[in-house]
Each structure stands twice: as structure tokens, then as C-alpha cells.
Amino acid sequence: MKLAQLELRRIHLELVTPFRTSFGEQTAREILLIGATTDDGIVGWGECVAMSEPLYSPEFVSGVETVISEFLTPRLTQHGEFSAADVAHILKPIKGHQMAKAALEMAALDAELRSQEINLHTRFGGSRASVPSGVSVGIFASIDALLTAVQGYVDDGYARIKLKVEPGWDIEPVRLVRDLIGPDMGLQVDANTAYTRQDIDHLRQLDEYDLLLIEQPLDTDDLLGHRDLAQAIETPVCLDESIESFTQAEDAIAIGAAEIINIKPGRVGGYLEAVRIHDLCAAHGIPVWCGGMLETGIGRAANCALAALDGFVLPGDISASRRFYSRDIVQNPIEVVGGEVAVPSAPGLGYDLDVDFLESITTSVHHLSL
After folding, report:
1. Active-site residue, selected from the candidate residues 92, 95, 162, 264
2. CA 234 to mean position of chain CA atoms
3. Which one of 14, 70, 126, 365 is most buried, by most CB atoms within 10 A?
């Protein structure tokens, strides 16, 4: 295909409740959407998962918009015709900026698949029509507030609970949530790099609560620390922020730093790289699951298709849209039914935009001719 135009659209979407992690609190999402229009007039959309500030990763919305405008788009323009599978190779000379590249590849995939009238689920070869849905629960001001929220998610039918933790908010919340949900429901924790190697003995206390995993407890670049932690505790160690590419996943597996991997397409540079990492992990017997970045219905639809691959054996962070947003930017947003979400089957990524609502929350639009 050949692209005729890119649209960089910023939107502001309020969260239904504040979402706090070890690196900060969000009350709204500023999101950069990328619309890719082909010469044939087909429009595909990608969603960038970068935050407004460089807290989760070095990327942030304003920086992503600059990188796409000044460096990534010109390379696509110079290349002329290309397929979605070519995007990563074309953009490889630009170092880093995985989330920016992923958003462009996502838009190209959507446009390409819509033109072929096939869906992302078929493109990936996923075997399931629905996938188990887990929910991510932030850090609260009180234990009572946490338990009330968790009970609500249990009542909503989620298959798994994930608790955000940090020093001072870990052992006791985990103990009480385990007591609340019982021994059979899946429970895991996510530290977002909040601990150090000196906390290994402290983290060993979590073994008592039969957790599915502890996610990214140490710094992003501390693979050896994660290896040591994995050897010292019974709770499986899962890597998130540490995995930004196939090679990093390969290295982490080789040294025993990753017993489980959370695959976030935006973090690793795109959905096609995510599939490669899935295949690598499957070959080594490493369980994977699909992480979330508070995506709109665009990203949630794509994540569903990814999570339908056989290697995704743990429930992902693909919650109902209403978990975070009172109104989504797509028609027929994701819902949880019986602990699962249906994999979209419409052409492209599998959604239709709610155009009127999208326009009402748009803060800027920038068009780039190719």
C-alpha cells in the first residue's frame, strides 16, 4: 500500500476514578491517535500508549508527536509503497521510540487489513473467540477503599485481580485481598520498578499468598537482580518494563530473569514484534500475558486479537472499557461477560469509531502529507 496522509490527533479522556501506581497518579489520559489514509482512501488508526510525562518509559505524548512528524514519517514517505510488516524495518535506523513506531505500525496494519477485508485476529492466527479478562487495581488512600473496589471487580466477573504495590503498600493489602477473594481466584501484584535488590527478603513474604506472579519489582535495567530474586522466592517473577524487544526477551530468558513475560505491544515496538516475542516464549515454555496501558477501544480491540494466541495462558489486563472510561471512542466498546471478553471480528483491528464523541474530546489535529 501507499499512504497519502497521516493525521496526528490528540484527545483528552477523563478516567472514571483516579488510577495510582508507584510512579504517580492519573486522573485523565492525553492520547495521541494516528490516522493513516491510503491512496485508495482507506483509513486505519493507531493508538500511542505513551503517557503525558516520561514516568513509565522515556517516551511522552509531545515527544512522540515530534518524533513521528520530524523523523519517522519522512522515512515512510521516502520508501513509497510498503506493507505493515515493513514498517519496523523502515524505521529501525531511528533509535528507540518504540511507542511511536508501534503506533505507526498499528495504523498501517488497520488500513492494510481493512483494504483486504480481514481482521487482526485472522492475521495473527489466534485460536480463541474470547480471552479471559483481568483487572488492574491501583493504590488507594485506605485499605477499606481498596477492598470495596476489589469486591466490585469480583462482582463484575473478572477472572483475575492485579494489585499495584509499592513499599509500605504491599504485604497487608495483598493479605486482605487474598482473604476477600478466596484461594481460588487469580491474584498478582505489579510493582512498576518500586523495589531494589535489598528488598528480596521483604518480597519473600508474598510467597504465602499464592500469587500468580510479581511483575517488574526491580529497576528496568536490573536483569541480574531479577534473576537473583527469581532464585530466592517462590512467587514467579514477571518482567514488563525490562522487555522492549525480542533480543531483550531472549536475554532475560537465557539468564533466568524472566519466568513470565508481560507483552505490551507499544512497549516492544508494535504488534508484529509482540507476536515474535510470543513465539519465542512459547518455544522456551515461558508463559506470557497481554498487559494494558489504559487503552481506548482501539488498543483494546488489538490487544484482544493478540491475547487470543495460544501462548497467552494467563489473563491479560483487557478489562471492560467502563473500568477506566465512562464513554469510549469506539462504538460497542469491550465488555466483560463471564470473566471473558470477545475478540473483535470486524475487518481491521475490529472496531468502529464513535466519530461525534471523538471530535468532542479532540484537543489538536495535525495533518502530514506523504
Report:
1. 264
2. 26
3. 126
pLDDT at 369: 84
What's the pLDDT tens digit per position in 1-10?
A: 899 999 999 9
Q: What phi and psi values does residue 295 have, to the nearest 5 degrees?
A: -65, 155
Asked if pLDDT for residue 23 goes beyond 90, the answer is no
pTM, 2 dp: 0.95
Please give the distance of CA 53 from its chain centroid, rounded to a whole number.
17
**Starting at the edge strand that comes first in sequence, how are the strands of the sheet with 260-263 ordered?**
134-137, 160-164, 186-190, 214-215, 237-239, 260-263, 288-290
Q: How far is CA 329 from CA 42, 144, 188, in A?
A: 19, 32, 29
Does 347 fall in a domain? no
Distance from C-alpha of 332 to C-alpha of 327, rounded to nearest angstrom? 10
DSSP state of 270: S
What average pLDDT score do residues 47-67 get?
96
Is 11 domain-assigned? Answer: yes
Average pLDDT value for the chain? 96
Active site annotation includes 164? yes
Are residues 227 and 78 part of one domain?
no
* End-to-end CA gap in the chain: 12
Using H for helix, E for strand and C for coil, what is the string for 81-129? Answer: CCCHHHHHHHHCCCCCCHHHHHHHHHHHHHHHHHHHCCEHHHHHCCCCC
Q: State whether 183 and 95 are in the same domain.
A: no
**pLDDT of 60 above 90:** yes
Alpha-carbon distance 250 to 127, whole Å? 25
Q: Does 101 qualify as catalytic in the annotation? A: no
Please indicate, yes or no, whether residues 173 and 311 belong to a single structural domain of this protein: yes
* Mean pLDDT (whole number) for 333-356: 94
| Number of neighbours of residue 24 by Cβ within 10 angstroms | 12
DSSP 317-331: S---GGGT-SS-SBS
Q: Which three cell numbers stand for residue 74?
A: 519522512
Least confident range of 20-29, 39-48, 101-110, 349-358:
20-29
